[in-house]
Amino acid sequence: METYTLLRHFADSWFLLLMTLFFIGVIVWAFRPGSRELHDDTRNIVFRNEDRPAAGRDETEPRAQRGDRHFHEAR
Question: b/e for 6-43, b at 16 or more Cβ within 10 A?
């Protein structure tokens, strides 16, 4: 049996079965009973700072004065 034929047979049968089981597993994992709290928390991330802006650094001062060493301006 040629390599192509063998791989084609594997892809048509066993790999299809494997991917189907993986898909079903992902769906079951996403809708598992204990995940409701996690999904509720993730869903409400956008509304956490609805009353006031998030506490952050002052964006009006230059980066060099803030001590921000992660970003370097191109010269």
Answer: eeeeeeeeeeeeeeeeeeeeeeeeeeeeeeeeeeeeee
- The whole model's pTM is what? 0.48
**Which residue is it, tokens 């921000």?**
68
The pLDDT tens digits for 58-73 are: 666 665 565 555 655 5
Distance CA 73, CA 62 (A): 11
pLDDT digits over 12-37, tens only? 889 989 999 999 999 999 899 888 88
From CA 64, how far away is CA 10, in angstroms rounded? 59
d(CA 54, CA 64): 22
Instruction: Find the angle CA(28)-CA(34)-CA(49) to the nearest 5 degrees.
Output: 110
